[in-house]
Design a protein that fits this description.
By secondary structure, this protein is of the alpha+beta class. It has four helices and six strands. The two termini are 13 Å apart.
């Protein structure tokens, strides 16, 4: 069995790697009665966003993740897992963790909301890996992967 670079780090405990969605990092929401919302999912925008704008972007992201999960026919996971994000930014000066922190928070909330994962407490959530991707000229985006780990209940299935 050939491992991907991500699995190579955890090959004794990984039982599955699944791309679950692609999340756009730049959002534009046109509204009729109020000004339009432009949002870039990074820490600067997140810390300065008004509550209603933040909720509007969050709801759009939830719907986007839900639709991608349905189209990819991703099943729920109850055991321990790790998240992996490959973040494709606009330029070399982009800060990976400014995007990664906000994308991780929003995607984890969306996955819980869609019942894809039970919760993100320390019992199940093993952490996140952020990998810089290619530089894109147009719309920046993040590829989201769920890395399934062996848990105590799944020990018999795992081949260590």
């Amino acid at each position: 069995m050939k491992f991907t670079p991500i699995q190579e780090l955890h090959k004794n405990h990984v039982i599955g790697l699944k791309q679950i969605c692609i999340v756009p990092l730049q959002w534009h929401i046109q509204r009729i009665t109020k000004p339009s919302i432009n949002g870039m999912l990074n820490l600067r925008w997140y810390s300065n966003a008004k509550f209603e704008n933040l909720n509007c972007i969050r709801n759009k992201l939830f719907m986007h993740v839900r639709d991608e999960l349905k189209s990819r026919e991703v099943r729920a996971w109850t055991g321990p897992y790790e998240m992996c994000y490959i973040i494709h930014c606009k330029g070399v000066k982009s800060r990976l963790m400014d995007y990664g922190a906000v994308v991780n928070k929003m995607v984890m909330e969306a996955l819980q909301n869609c019942k894809m994962i039970k919760n993100d407490n320390l019992q199940n959530y093993r952490g996140a890996v952020f990998i810089p991707g290619t530089y894109v000229e147009s719309e920046p985006y993040a590829e989201v992967f769920l890395i399934a780990h062996c848990g105590l209940a799944e020990k018999k299935v795992c081949r260590n």
